[in-house]
Amino acid sequence: IKRAIQKGEPYRVDCRVTLPGGELRWIRSQAHVQMVDGHAVRITGAIIDITRERLLLDRLGESAERMRVAEAAAGFGVWEFDKVADSITVSEGMLRLHEVPPESPLTYAARDIVTMLDEDYVAALKAATHTSFTTGRRFLIELPIRAQDGTTRWWRIRAHPEFRDGAPWRMIGATLDITSERQMLLSLEQA
């Protein structure tokens, strides 16, 4: 605040305060400093209670962390194909499944991401997505995927279409690594 007054710059400060009854609240103080001949003559601003905003942001962060832990533990990822924007957004779990570095982007142009993936996988996913958009029904497919180490993994992909004004808008799905399940079934069949 002192620098804002000295230089005539606007400022914004978020801080936690304790009310007389002991309740903790978050406030935001935001103001504009009016200068005349190099001197601050007026500060115009507002102090607002942002406790609810901070709590929601904290909960959102906690939810995101729980999702990261669940994806890693269960071997799944979630994704969204935006037909209108022709883009695909993936979760960190999808990056792991595709063996992509964790610092990679989470949103890709559809034309770019398909060049990064196995062509049989892309063809099966495109066919399922097309049918789902055409029928308006969810889809469930299981596919073999070649891992970078040359082994075959099995994925179960579930998705549902969403429409806006009657037109296909987006597809939201989840992909689960079911390799262990497949291996167990194969062992039972051979026993």
Give the arrangement of secondary structure elements.
Blueprint: H1 2-7, E1 11-18, E2 24-36, E3 39-49, H2 51-74, E4 76-82, E5 87-90, H3 92-97, E6 107-109, H4 110-113, H5 119-135, E7 139-146, E8 152-164, E9 167-177, H6 179-190
Antiparallel strand pairs: 1-2, 2-3, 4-5, 4-9, 5-6, 7-8, 8-9
Word description of this protein:
- The strands form 2 sheets. The protein has a 6-stranded antiparallel beta sheet with strand order 6-5-4-9-8-7, with helices on both faces.
- It has 191 residues and is α+β, with helices and mostly antiparallel strands.
- The radius of gyration is 26 Å and the shape is elongated.
- The model has no long low-confidence stretch (mean pLDDT 88).
- The longest helix is centred in the N-terminal third of the chain and has 24 residues, at 51-74.
- 13% of the residues are buried.
- It is built from 6 helices and 9 strands; from the N terminus they run αβββαββαβααβββα.
Keywords:
9 strands; alpha+beta; 41% strand; three-stranded antiparallel β-sheet; single chain
Biggest β-sheet description? 6 strands, antiparallel
Average pLDDT for all residues: 88
Query: Which outline best applies?
Result: elongated
Order the strands across the largest sheet as they lie in space: 6-5-4-9-8-7
Number of helices: 6
Strand segment count: 9
Percent strand equals 35-45%
Structural class assignment: alpha+beta
Rg for CA atoms = 26 Å
Low-confidence stretches: none
What is the structure about, briefly put?
With 191 residues, this protein is of the alpha+beta class. Helices cover 36% and strands 41% of the residues.
